[in-house]
Design a protein that fits this description.
Blueprint: E1 2-7, E2 10-15, E3 24-25, H1 37-87, H2 92-98, H3 101-123, H4 126-139, H5 143-160, E4 169-173, E5 180-190, E6 197-204, E7 212-218, E8 223-224, H6 229-237
Parallel strand pairs: 1-3
Antiparallel strand pairs: 1-2, 4-5, 4-8, 5-6, 6-7
Helix pairs in contact: 1-2, 1-3, 3-4
Length: about 260
């Protein structure tokens, strides 16, 4: 029995036993990759990264706006449902239209914005301030509610008002002396033993400035900045991408630290 063997030089015969079946032996050839295949893969990965970094800001903006819009819609939805319930005896079609998911989503958010505007206008009036003071007096009778409401209100008022001494937005040495963390001075205290002034500094986390921690820092170690609260908030929420070109890192007149 003979078998065929195909190779680069053609077909050759192999002597095999008579009982062996006819076998065609083909050598294994590996075809070279296409001309542009090796160069195409890096290009694909690069274009994917370019597309990601192009759309990522839009995606983050959409997430933030969607979160805020959903929050406004959830606040205004009960009032809109009450309005639809009151209008049902007059116009059933209008009530059903107000309760449509898409319409309710938009109108509830707009209703909340209108309510916030009305509260702002009312607060600027004497009658509005008296009404808010009366409401706060009622909340003060509820222990847990008064604690949460009072702490939140005081913190927001602290950020809104100018500080008693120095600048509101500061830098503190954290987590090491050669590193700085951005913070807000919320309170200035005095050490009764040494007489030194101490600052309670709220250090927000990025990108959510509503979470953070408190550091008690001597006022001598606090680095003043010329940033406003809005600029500092934008700096935290964007991960530092909108930072200015220049930033005071140490105390005025302090000698720069030498890196060993």
């Amino acid at each position: 029995m003979r078998a065929f063997r195909a190779g680069p030089g053609g077909v050759s015969w192999l002597n095999m036993p008579r009982t062996a079946p006819l076998i065609l032996i083909m050598p294994a050839y590996s075809s070279p990759p296409a001309a542009g295949q090796a160069q195409r893969r890096p290009h694909v990965a690069r274009y994917i990264l370019i597309g990601f970094f192009t759309l990522a800001p839009l995606w983050v903006t959409w997430l933030v706006l969607d979160f805020l819009f959903n929050l406004l819609a959830r606040i205004g939805a009960p009032f809109l449902r009450g309005l639809a319930h009151g209008l049902r005896p007059v116009s059933e079609i209008l009530a059903d239209w107000l309760l449509h998911p898409g319409v309710q989503y938009v109108l509830a958010a707009l209703f909340t914005l209108a309510g916030l505007y009305a509260v702002g206008v009312l607060t600027s009036l004497v009658l509005g301030r008296r009404l808010i003071a009366y409401t706060e007096g009622l909340l003060a009778r509820l222990p847990l509610v008064q604690t949460i409401y009072g702490a939140t209100k005081k913190f927001l008022e602290t950020l809104r008002k100018p500080p008693v001494s120095g600048q509101r937005v500061v830098l503190i040495a954290f987590p090491s002396p050669d590193m700085k963390a951005l913070g807000f001075v919320t309170k200035v205290m005095t050490d009764p033993d040494s007489g030194r002034q101490l600052a309670a500094v709220y250090v927000p986390t990025s990108p959510n400035p509503t979470s953070g921690y408190i550091e008690i820092v001597p006022m001598d170690d606090v680095v003043q900045t010329d940033w406003s609260v809005e600029e500092a908030m934008a700096f935290v929420m964007t991960g530092g991408t909108n930072a200015p070109d220049t930033l005071r890192f140490g105390q005025p007149g302090a000698a720069p630290q030498q890196t060993p």
